[in-house]
Amino acid sequence: MSRPIRLVFFAGVLLILFYFLQESVFSDSSYVTTIKKERQDKNLSFRSSENSPLEEADRPTFDSLNYYTPDKLYQVEADYRVFGRPDTVRMPMNTGETEPYLKYAQATFNLDGQQNSLMLYLRVNTPDSSLFVPFYDKTNGSETYNGGRFLDIEKPEEHTNTITIDFNKAYNPFCVYNYNYSCPVPPRVNRLNIPVRAGEKAYTKKK
Questions:
Q1: Where are the domains of the chain?
Q2: Residue 25 and residue 19: Cα distance in Å, rounded?
Q3: Kind and range of the H or E element at 108?
Q4: Confidence of residue 3 (pLDDT cuts 50, 70, 90)
Q5: Which residue of 2, 51, 92, 170 sits 20 to 30 Å from the alpha carbon of 190, by its own alpha carbon?
């Protein structure tokens, strides 16, 4: 290969690499922008919506919820297995009651150098078809709420064998903000042995 041809070849390779790098940066930037917009909207809802879970006395001083910086490393692709005959389980609530949920599917994924697994549930008494994922991780009690956090994931179409789990969208149960709410307690089977530094952090009231 002559020198001019080599120069053209390497220039072409560099151009292709630059294109894909630019596409990746743009994709990450767009993703972060979307996550930040969702968080801004939630803050606004907490401040001004009549359905805000905050206690009336806390609304005037509320500024924003606390979050980890969005990180696409915590948006993982998981193997997705729907149970043939989902069991109905009684999930305990923080008030001592129980509520029925369908143990619908299992998701298995790699994160922080480990293989992890979570059970995905369907609410029995609501028309909402999203999958409910209550979980614990190693940040609970120090950086995040000690009672665990939740995820809501759109239920995939039938015969799908993968699912996206985005821990950047992990949120606190409403009982964190207001003791009048009753919230599910994550089951032991959904206890992750890694720190998940993504999503919502512990809530601190402003005085």
A1: 72-190
A2: 10
A3: strand 98-111
A4: low
A5: 51
> How does DSSP classify residue 67?
B
In whole angstroms, how large is the CA radius of gyration of the chain?
Answer: 21
Phi, psi of 59 (to 5 degrees): -65, -40
Residue among 71, 96, 90 at smallest CA distance from 169: 71
Other beta carbons within 10 Å of 79: 14
Which structure tokens are listed for 145? 């709420």
Closest CA to 139 of 67, 207, 62, 189: 67
Phi, psi for 161 (deg, rounded to 5): -115, 5
Encoded tokens for 140 = 């609970």
Q: Which residue has the tokens 């821990």?
A: 167
Helices (H), the chain: 3-48
**CA dihedral sign of residues 177, 166, 117, 105:** positive
* Cβ atoms of residues 156 and 168 within 8 Å: no
For 97-141, write each residue's pLDDT tens digit. 999 999 999 999 999 999 999 999 999 977 667 999 999 999 999
> Cα(131)–Cα(106) distance, rounded to whole angstroms?
11
Whether residue 180 is predicted with pLDDT greater than 50 in this model: the reply is: yes
Global pTM reads: 0.84
Backbone angles phi, psi at 34, to 5 degrees: -65, -45
Facing residues of 151 across strands? 133
Which are the contacts of 148, defined by CB distance < 8 A and separation ≥ 6? 134, 135, 136, 137, 140, 173, 185, 186, 190
